[in-house]
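To whoever is on call:

I kicked off a structure prediction for a single chain this morning and the downstream step that reads the tokens threw a length-mismatch warning. I double-checked the sequence; it's 171 residues and nothing unusual in it as far as I can see. Pasting both halves so you can look.
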Amino acid sequence: MQYLRPLLVMLLLLPTIAVAETNTVTSTVTGTTTVDRTPSTASAPSVAINNQDVCTTATSSAIQTQILGVATGTTVTDDNCERLKLARSLYGMGMKVAAVSMLCQDERVFDAMEMAGTPCPIDGKIGEAAQREWDRQVAIAEEEKEENEVVNEENNVDNGFVALLVLLLFL
């Protein structure tokens, strides 16, 4: 057993010793390395909104080329969210008509109230009085629209006449 161990070690090492070769590589390199491009550095700014009870979201973006980098950030306000919070606050203070008026600023709510037969409050009027006032406002708006169309037609005739005179001047 004592002779077996050294013999076993020699058998394992013998193939590696017999196959071993000597390779020598010699090379000389001279030169300089020039870094002609710096790494891109644009990073989008973080826009933090710390309060969850705010109707604002943040967006940011950045772009970098080899020459120029641009980064920007902004906040976007959700008007409908603000409207709901304001209406909830007004209702909580007992100002129910003001809360409904706040919600009526949304066209969808305004249309829904009209379809339900309960018009939105206007000038402190509610119910049938509000409906009469809204009808009067619509009539006034239609009259103004008709007047504007007449004025636009007159302006178009005047503009056409001026254009004709300018054309004749160039001939």
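Update from on-call: the warning came from a stale cache, not from the record. Cleared it. Sanity check on the structure: The mean pLDDT is 78.
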